[in-house]
Amino acid sequence: MISFRKKGLLTTVQDFGRAGYQRYGMPVCGAMDRFAMALANLLVGNPQGEAVVEATVMGPTIVFEEPEIFAVSGGDFGPTLNGEPIEINRAYRAEAGDTLALPMAKSGARAYIAFAGGLDLEEVMGSRSTFLKGGIGGLDGRPLQDGSRIGLRAPLADLPDLEERFVSPDLLPRYGSEAEVRFTYGPQDDLFSADGKKTFRSSVYTLSDKSDRMGFRMDGPAVERAAGSDGNIISDGICFGAIQVTNGQPIVMMADRQTTGGYPKLGCVIAADLPLLAQLKAGDKVRFRPVSVAAGQAVYRRQQKILDKLEKRVALRAPEPAEEPPLCGRFLIHVNGVEYDIYLEEQYDA
Amino acid sequence: MAKILTSSDCSLCVEFGNAITEEINKQVRAFTVAAEAAAIEGVTELVPTYRSVTVHYRPEVIGYARLYEKLNNILGGLTAAEIPPAGEIRVPVLYGGEHGPDLENVAKLHDMTPEQVIELHTAPTYLNYMLGFLPGFCYLGGLDSRIHTPRLTTPRVKIPAGSVGIAGSQTGIYPLDSPGGWQLIGQTPLRLYDPKREKAILVDAGMNMKFYPIDEAEYERIRRENYPEEYAQEGGQKT
Fold it and tell me: What pTM, to 2 d.p., does this model score?
């Protein structure tokens, strides 16, 4: 059993989310920073998608009622165990009565706590993720409260190679108050003018304080529509990271997004850069840089390799040599005042 | 002619047109059924909408170029594909009173009696073009133009689950308690969305829907019997 002495700002249970039900209008939810969640889980010997506790900006204080192995990943909230500082991205053993505190985000905005053996919570539609708006999943379908208690499914008092269970910071994304995230164009980039697209990829946007797990609103220059677009589309599907533009304002759709919507989408943040975005706080700055699908996928596969290697070896000390990115380039060609986006990419075959 | 668009670095959007028509939606359904049957390794989820299907995939399992080619092949074979009927669900509705507080107003607005509104609302077979907005929320097409009704000027803070409403040319059912501005004409005891049930959401995209009026006693009976699965399987009235 673990109990929450202090709940923190917004502390929820999340996993990979409720996949497979988007066609029924069911939001996916799940961890905002999936990479950090997977990392925390692997460090304690869990599958990558086991349910974890997601803390936001101000973390919870948790008391262990029995011995357990745990790890904290994601943003650095200055975690302490019984008042002593501990490292992020390293597995630790807690004794019964120990107190884990995640006071405040020093870097990043979201921290993930994984518990060996997983949390003893019921799956709802195949997931333990909390869907806040729908009031299901997690613990009673809502954020954790002061005094909330969660059982552990198979707590581990020890792991033989505990001191080997850590990841070198060199391998991990660095979270700052400024981020450059990459995106692919589509599916409705043709509904924006060439100037509008240029505005978007060359401006610095500020993450609005009206952002939440559903969407990140970007304050900054308005993105101009193409002539003939009224700023609406016939509703279609919305992906994690989709850049939806509502009355000129870009909104990046996040984990709790609705499944479909009627605003045009200029592009989508690449999967590998979603963690960087998810770790931003209100007021932080973002730049968006267009890349090809092949380039996005190459970065993503490299990121997955880190997790795969961690799964096999657990301890990762030295940075892996960077792989050559696939041959790709993007050219903007102007012909009679019309901008054409040309991609050149090496084909990838799995 | 369908287009395959990029919607992210781990999804593609197969678009069949840019209009809300039964013809386009039929192609959406045909493609969804065919792509599901093809069971392409690495494809994790298909999300059909009015006029497109978003195909989610794992780039570490299948690359963009290979998936594009496979989807293109499915599109090429679509006319030959035999698409099983999507089925029909019959939805019992208790019209008016506290379950449909706007029925009288809707009737007055159109110079009708409440009974005429009910008749016009229950007559058509509606097509469920897609689900979205909320879990289990159906975008139904086919509302009789004689009862198209503008939204309330002041939305309600809480509309109870099961409420049946009209907003402009749309009619629909609120699957869970939610704020909203629809004109409420009735309520169904059928739970379209129940996350704890084996089949959490009763209606699929592409299915037909019929409403039929019930009385208070029948409403209570269906409620008591806890939303029988028969509605999902046979799409029929329980006898």
Answer: 0.90
